[in-house]
């Protein structure tokens, strides 16, 4: 019985330590991830302006189905 309790407590301790390590590591990398996200957003917005910013070219192919 003591072995089972010790195993469960050891498992819980491993989970707690793992959670702390992951939390600290994630907190340290927050600024880096935000900079990456900001850069990707600026690039996406630039591409959207390139794709949709200029006037759209209307093609005459659509007129054939209007009979």
Automatic annotation (TrEMBL):
This is Secreted protein. Residues 48-67 are annotated as: Disordered. It comes from Pseudonocardia spirodelae.
């Amino acid at each position: 019985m003591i072995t089972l309790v010790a195993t469960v407590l050891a498992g819980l301790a491993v989970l707690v330590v793992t959670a702390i390590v992951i939390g600290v590591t994630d907190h340290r990398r927050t600024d880096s991830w935000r900079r990456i996200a900001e850069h990707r957003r600026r690039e996406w917005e630039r591409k959207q302006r390139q794709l949709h910013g200029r006037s759209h070219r209307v093609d005459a192919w659509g007129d054939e189905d209007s009979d």
